[in-house]
Amino acid sequence: MDKKKIATALKYDSEKQIAPELVAKGKGVVAENIIKVAEEAGVKTYEDELLSQQLYNLSIGDTIPEELYHVVAKVLTFIAQMDQKEHAYK
After folding, report:
1. What is the pTM (predicted TM-score) of this model?
2. What burial letters (b/e) apply to 10-34, b meaning 16+ CB within 10 Å?
3. Which one of 9, 67, 76, 79 is at 20 to 30 Å from 44 when CA atoms are compared?
4. 6-88 homologous superfamily
5. Cα gap 40→11, rounded to integer Å
6. Residue 80 has what pLDDT?
């Protein structure tokens, strides 16, 4: 059986939110479109199948549950480091 790709998108403004919010989710073609739109907008992506599955169980607009804070913080830190490296080379 072929597993469908899952994609989720989070939004986080540390000045306005206590936790990241799920703003998009999808499987298959929808997942591919979420990734494509992110890449076209210059938004960094991170692949973690288990985390995506956990986030997919949330509803759009939900903030992530406390039990995911640590893993999502690691992802946000990784992306911030990628941004810093990218800006350092410009």
Report:
1. 0.81
2. beeeeeeeebbbbebbbeeeebeeb
3. 67
4. secretion proteins EscU (3.40.1690.10)
5. 17
6. 82
